[in-house]
Specification:
The chain is built from nine helices and eleven strands. By secondary structure, it is an alpha+beta fold. Among the domains are: about 160 residues, Beta-Lactamase, CATH 3.30.450.20; about 150 residues, Heat Shock Protein 90, CATH 3.30.565.10. The strands form three sheets. Strands 6-8-9-11-10 form a five-stranded mixed sheet. A hairpin with a 2-residue loop joins strand 8 and strand 9. Helix 1 packs antiparallel against helix 2 and helix 3 crosses helix 4. The model has no long low-confidence stretch (mean pLDDT about 80).
Length: about 500
């Protein structure tokens, strides 16, 4: 349904007028009622006070005749009245008082029986001797309010009808003028620039008609000039478009070639840097594995034999117990040192390991649980894990390698908290990637160490606590999964390592 200007004018003005009149009537009636209620309340309070003052002596002396005469004097001004002494004995009352229960009203606005009921204490010398129960008939007050409301509604309806009539006449006038303007505009739209509007008035509508006619003249002149230049432009455009198309194609080809070259260079630089590192570490690992493992095996076997000899000497009473204990400690220290060397060789081999990854759908919560099972024996006793990983966070990756990364991050976080505390594990989402956060409350990492943190053999741990390859290996594994390994740290407040991996939906 399309609303015309006439309908909009009538409805709009009518809505505004009705709204304003309604607010005015409601406000006026509320003010009139409030004012009238205040006056009536003042009058009833005055009547009650005067009656209590006049009747106190009669109540004190039980002068019933005087009380009856006072009540008779007020019969025309009050609806009903009763005097009760302090013991609850009725001393005097109007004849109609017992026609219905007497219930004290809180205010004039809160009563439903056309009677305002209130009580006035009868006091003398600061002591209360009784109470006057008074009921005032307010039916006349309610009738006055009804008459005022009907009168206001009648005035409002008359005004609304007058405004509606004026709106109808104004809307009709505007509709006729706008219909003429629309008809002329339709003709111009169809290409008839010779149409003109007759100016019938000197008001704003007439000025619009004059401006429209001037516009039609300008459009007619402009169309002639446009048609004249259009042919010239078409010819020039044909030549220019052909030249621009040729240049654009050449530029696109050159730009695409440059982008491909830049991408290839970046990839090649990354691969070369990684390959050089792998080659260096690989050469070192291979040499160490060959040169160290063989003598290492001899030493380990000799230490085992030495340990057996020491136990045999324990049965010899000529060997001092202190010497046997020192020999046991020396052998134990050597075996621990040998195990440390084996761990270093194992880390070097893991760093240069380039076996094919086994990719499959994984859930981060299950991956973290398996990592916690592996890391729990290496976490400090005073460190506790807060696992807030939610289910259904799917990725695709090599489970073994990713567990190695998460386990390494958890163990590192534990080692960074000598005083103990929580390690918080949680997941957030950023665009099409899951972000697995491992946050500790440890000592933090110095700013000058952050840039070198993922370099091979770099470590901030004490001698004997790390090889400096754990984070470097983890960084390489995450890169192989098209992800990122990031770190944020502040001295004295802890560190947060974030593993960013692409989201994978298995279904």
């Amino acid at each position: 349904m399309r609303w015309t200007i006439k309908a909009k004018t009538i409805v709009g003005v009518a809505v505004i007028e009705i709204t304003l009149l309604t607010l005015l009537i409601i406000t006026g009636l509320n003010y009139f009622r409030s004012y009238s209620e205040q006056r009536l309340a003042s009058e009833t309070e005055l009547v009650g006070s005067l009656f209590a003052q006049a009747s106190k002596d009669a109540v004190i002396s039980y002068d019933l005749a005087t009380l009856e005469s006072l009540i008779s004097a007020l019969e025309g001004k009050v609806h009903r009245l009763r005097v009760v002494n302090q013991s609850g004995l009725v001393l005097a009352q109007t004849a109609n008082f017992d026609s219905r229960p007497f219930i004290v009203d809180e205010s004039l606005a809160v009563n439903n029986d056309n009677e305002f009921a209130f009580e006035v204490p009868i006091v003398a010398s600061g002591s209360e001797f009784g109470v006057a129960q008074i009921g005032i008939d307010v039916s006349a007050f309610e009738r006055t309010m009804d008459v005022a409301a009907r009168g206001a509604m009648a005035i409002a309806m008359a005004e609304i009808l007058l405004v509606a009539l004026f709106s109808f006449l104004l809307g009709s006038y505007l509709t006729r003028q706008l219909s003429s303007l629309r008809g002329a505009a339709d003709k111009i739209k169809d290409g008839d620039f010779d149409v003109r509007i007759q100016r019938a008035t000197n008001d704003e509508i007439g000025e619009v008609a004059l401006a429209f006619n001037k516009m039609a003249e300008n459009l007619s002149s402009a169309r002639e000039s446009t048609e004249r230049y259009q042919h010239q432009l078409q010819e020039a455009n044909r030549t220019l478009e052909a030249r621009v198309a040729d240049r654009t194609q050449l530029l696109e080809q050159a730009n695409q070639s440059l982008q491909e070259t830049a991408n290839n260079l970046r990839k090649a630089q990354g691969v070369m840097a990684r390959q050089e590192t792998l080659a260096s570490v690989g050469t070192l690992s291979a040499g160490m594995a060959h040169e160290i493992n063989t003598p290492l095996g001899f030493i380990a076997a000799n230490m085992k034999v030495m340990s057996e000899y020491i136990e045999e000497l324990a049965d010899n009473q000529h060997v001092a117990p202190d010497i046997l204990q020192d020999m046991r400690e020396i052998v134990s220290d050597n075996q621990q040192g040998l195990q440390r060397i084996k761990d270093i060789i194992k880390s070097l081999k893991a760093y240069v390991h380039d076996g094919a990854m086994v990719l499959k759908p994984l859930q981060l919560d299950q991956l973290v649980k398996r990592s916690l099972n592996l890391a729990k024996h290496r976490v400090r006793d005073n460190v506790y894990i807060i696992d807030n990983i939610v289910p259904d966070c799917w990725i695709e990756g090599d489970e073994t390698r990713l567990i190695q990364v998460v386990t390494n991050l958890i163990v590192n976080a534990s080692q960074a908290m000598p005083e103990g505390g929580p390690i918080n594990l949680y997941v957030t989402r950023k665009d099409d990637r899951w972000c697995l956060h491992v946050q500790d409350s440890g000592t933090g990492i110095a700013p000058e160490h952050l840039e070198k943190l993922f370099e091979p053999f770099f470590t901030t741990k004490s001698v004997g606590e790390g090889t400096g390859l754990g984070l470097s290996i983890s960084y390489g594994i995450i890169e192989e999964h098209n992800g990122e390994l990031k770190v944020q740290s502040q001295i004295g407040q802890g560190s947060r390592f974030t593993v960013v991996l692409p989201i994978h939906q298995p279904y």
